[in-house]
Amino acid sequence: DHLKSSISLFYININDLQLTQFVPNGLGRKITNAGQAVSKGLEFGMDANLGNGFSATLNYGYANATFTNYSDSVQTFDPITHQPVNSRVDYKGKFVPYAPQNTLSLSANYEHRFKNACIDRLMASVQYTGIGKIYWDEANDISQDYYSLLNAKLGVTKGIFGLEIWAKNMLDTHYNAFYFDSSGSKFFQVGRPVEFGATLNLQF
Predict the structure, then answer these.
(1) Region 113-118: what's the mean pLDDT?
(2) C-alpha distances out from residue 1 to 49, 51, 105, 133, Å
(3) Do the bridges between strand 176-182 and strand 185-190 make them parallel or antiparallel, or are there none, so unpaired?
(4) How far is Cα 67 from Cα 139, in angstroms, rounded to an integer?
(5) What's the N-to-C CA distance of the chain in angstroms?
(6) What pLDDT does 80 receive?
(7) 146-181: b or e for each residue (b if 16 or more CB lie within 10 Å)?
(8) Is 138:70 a contact under the CB 8 Å cutoff?
(9) For 89-100, how does the pLDDT look when each residue is reduced to its tens digit (9 = 90+)?
(10) What pLDDT does 2 receive?
(11) 175/159 Cα distance (integer angstroms)
(12) For residue range 137-154, what is the model confidence (pLDDT) as tens digits?
């Protein structure tokens, strides 16, 4: 009862994979069938009871998701006439967009319960998470490299009341959380910077 672990391997053959695309005029989005893709990889998890209220967890996943049969019509502009030109592009072998190749979570936790004290329980945790690489488009021209976040939390409970003090992205990592192309312009949603806060809970 001190260590639990699991590992799994997967191979998924996907037909008619659906992707969200922005229409050329930038005034909306559409769902399109993206042919065939294969996703293969592994997942590993481990929970460790270290004793005296201490515990740790580790989760890691690796996924290699690529197109095996997908081509699409792409609109470009002729550099001389500046007129739109439609052509077909083959994405076979390209990575599926918005699918991170690596996901990692590592946390250390502590919990202690009191008797006849001003608080019932004390909790503390530190969590490291990592994600990437993520490709944002079918051509794999734009991507987000692997990035990591460090979070921490300290909490106490008394009866039905609970108070948590937390910090997110403590290293103030700069990263992009989302991307889209609209009307020929590229837009990125920047990830949230370092945050500090408190949460008051009431359970009844």
Answers:
(1) 90
(2) 7, 10, 22, 35
(3) antiparallel
(4) 11
(5) 32
(6) 75
(7) ebebbbbbbbbbeeeebebeeebbeeeeebbeebbe
(8) yes
(9) 899 999 999 999
(10) 92
(11) 40
(12) 889 999 999 999 999 999
